[in-house]
Structures are given as structure tokens and as C-alpha cells.
Design brief:
Elements lengths: L1 H42 L3 H10 L3 H4 L1 H10 L2 H24 L5 H30 L3 H33 L3 H17 L15 H14 L1 H21 L2 H7 L5 H20 L1 H5 L4 H21 L3 H28 L3 H33 L3 H17 L7
Helix pairs in contact: 1-2, 1-6, 1-7, 1-8, 1-12, 2-6, 2-16, 4-6, 4-9, 4-16, 5-6, 5-8, 6-16, 7-12, 7-15, 9-16, 10-14, 10-15, 10-16, 10-17, 12-15, 14-15, 14-17
Amino acid sequence: MQAVGQRGNVKARGVGPLLASTGISVTGDGALIAAAPLLAASLTRNPVAVSTVTAAFYLPWLLTGPVAGVLVDRWARRPVLVTADLVRAVILTVLAALVFVHAINVLFLVSAVLLVGIAQCFFDSAAQAMIPAVVGRDKEALTHTNGRFWALDTIGRSLIGPPLGSTTFALNKTLPFVGDALSFFASAALVSRLPRVPASVGPRERLLTALRDGLQHLIRTRDLRVLALSMGAYNFGYNAAIATFVLYAKDVLRVADAGYGILLAAMAVGGVIAGWRAAPLTRRLSYRQIQAIAHLVQGLAWTGVAFAPNAVVVGILFAFLGAGSSLASVAVGSARQALTPDKLLGRVVSAFRLFGLGAAGLGALAGGVIASWQGLRAPLLVAAALVILAAVPTWSRESPT
């Protein structure tokens, strides 16, 4: 009876601080997502160099993601969350100082983004592992909580953050990086209030053995395996298109610096609605069916963007991109939480990110190469074709889990 009472108390106190910290920190991230490419574009017009900045957001999942997952499964998760936030805050403070004294270059910018991404590997693995510890593993509960989680993520990362980042960048190049650093300090204060969820109890395997166990669980669980590969294709396509989109927006659509963030914020309109209503929208669909539909939405939207006559039409299409991304995130997050035991969850999250966000970094680099070779519109069309094709093996005729 005591264990049940303690778990109920965890549920009551756990969700609020985690969701609040998400809302604050991702707003700073959204500002960084807009400001970092703008800063890169102010330093160089080389598409490959600009795409490298976007790739740096995701490549840490190839370099440190799996190890982060193993360690998260061994450590108490609240200290991991606090430490990761503080590390990111310090890195961004240093980056802001370099921008302020005009000592910044593309190499320093990419290095800072890489370091922030390494800390994010630990934070995201711990945060995703925290959710089922708080709300349980029922499909309805997970989709409800993940829907709220990703809706807040979309509001901050896509609706509020990018316009804030591009507008403050237009006023002063230092401001968005200072704001992101402050957001991580605030997030650290919030996650420090999370309930104590102890690390999983059990024998400590060797690092390679632990990595293998997480990867084997993903590979042997059919739905997780398909969703991981599908998310990899999805993220590869999205980032191939978005990596040089800052140049497409400025040079083809003639969008000003401040307007670039507003254009990115259009994604949030569909993303917030889809994320907030994820449970009723997906009740009659399996996780794989949700993901397949997200693929089709993204592919059709990128095709439209490639031929859109102006930024207004692009903004409308971006709303559909946001809706698809939000539903995909809910489906994948809920599936791995529902189908993975707690002792493996941190490393399974990292294994997913190895496929998903590792592919995002490679997609961003590919987008830069394609744009240099065939022009700025080409990555949009390549991404559209890829994700539409990937929808076919993702679809499942099985009923919802």
C-alpha cells in the first residue's frame, strides 16, 4: 500500500514541473533554431557551411546518444536533468560572449551547437524515461501526456521561439543566445522540483553489453523497429529540406531576418492543435498508422513549398508540416514508452534518437550538398519524394495497441 501511495504522489507532483521546464527551455531552443542559421548566414553564404550548423544540432546523437542512454538508465534521472540544463546554460553564455565581442566564426558556432546537443542527449533520454514513471504505460495516458508535452514543445520551439530569436537577432546578434542561456537556468530550477525517481535497480552490465541490450530490444520488437527506421527517414527528409531553407527564404522568397522566424512559427499552428488533440485524433489508429500519415503530410507539404509563389503560401503549408511532426512525435514517444520496460527505457530512447536524430544530422548535410549541386529548391523535392516512399512500409493494418 505504501508503494502505491508513493507512486500516486509521484504522478500528482511529477508532470507539472517537467511540462513547465519543457515550455521554458524549448522557447530558448526555438530562438536558437532561428538565430544560429541566421548567424551562420551572416558569416557565409556557402550552403554546405550553413547546413553544418543545422547538422550540429543532431549529430551528437550519433556520437554520444547511445552512451547517454545507458548512463541515464544507471543514474537517478532528476540530477541528470538539472546538470544537463546547467551545462547548456554555461555553453550558451560563452557563445553569447563570443558574439558580443565579434570573435565568432562558423567553427565556434558549430562547436557550441555540438556541445549543447551532447548535453541534450542526456536531458532528452532522462525526460522521456521520466514520463512513464509519472503517468504509467496505458496508451490513453501516454498519448494524453505526450500530446501535452509535444504541444508545449511546439509552442516554444516553433511558435514563440523562432520569431523571438529572429527579431532579437535583428536588434542585436547577442540577444537570442543570452535568452536561451537564461531559459536553461530557469528550466534547471524547475526540474529540480521533480519527485525523486530512483535509478533502476539491478546488475550493472558492461557498457557494450548495456548498449547491445537496448538495441536488441528495439530490433526484436517489430513495431519499435519499424518506427525507428521510419523516424529516421522522416527526420532525414525534413532536415534535408530545412537545413538550407534559411537561404531559400532569404534569396528566393525575399524574407527578411525578422520574418524568417515568423515563417518558422507557422509550423506551430498545426503542431499545437495536433499535439493538444493527439489522444482523440489518434484513438482509432495504431502508432505505425499515425506515423505513416505524418509521412504523407510532410511529403505533400514540402512539394507545395517547392512551388509556392510566396511566403504566405509557404506559411500555410508549414502549418501542415507542424501538425505532421507533432503527431509523429506523439506516436513514436508513446510507442517506445508503452513497449519498453523501465530498466531499458533510457537506452531505447537513445537508440531511437541514434536512428532518428542521427539521420537528421546526415539529412542536413545531404541537403547542403544537394543545394550546392542542384540549387536551393532541389532539397525540398528530394525530401518530399523520400518521405512519401517511406510511408508505404510504415503503414500497418493492425488495430490500435
